[in-house]
């Protein structure tokens, strides 16, 4: 079993990645015109925010100090979305591509965490949140494919 400091470090890594996702979804909502997508992105942002709070509570229960901010890479990724959409005039497919790329990072982080030897109660949360990250990724990919197909018709 991983020691307590390793478990806290793993959870803090997930907190940073999840905060990236929370902020990334919010940024994506700001960079699309379609009201359905805005609602989708904002809902995902709120759900990921709830996951962040759950992870922070777990870190506290283990006697640690939870990460309070997103990663530098996540901030750079969101700025890239802003720049890219500025040049492509709120291109929905571009936003969805970048959102999917961000979800790829989250999936990898959760998969890596799920491979670790974690206490049962921590593993339960990590695996449940991994399933949520997979769902988010797949929904974004489906939306991207649908908007890409629609753009090809027009």
From TrEMBL:
Pfam families: DUF2383
Domain DUF2383: 6-115
InterPro entries: CHP02284, DUF2383, Ferritin-like, Ferritin-like_SF, UCP029477
Protein origin, superkingdom: Bacteria
SUPFAM superfamilies reported for this sequence: Ferritin-like
Name this polypeptide is given: DUF2383 domain-containing protein
Organism for this UniProt entry: Methylophilus rhizosphaerae
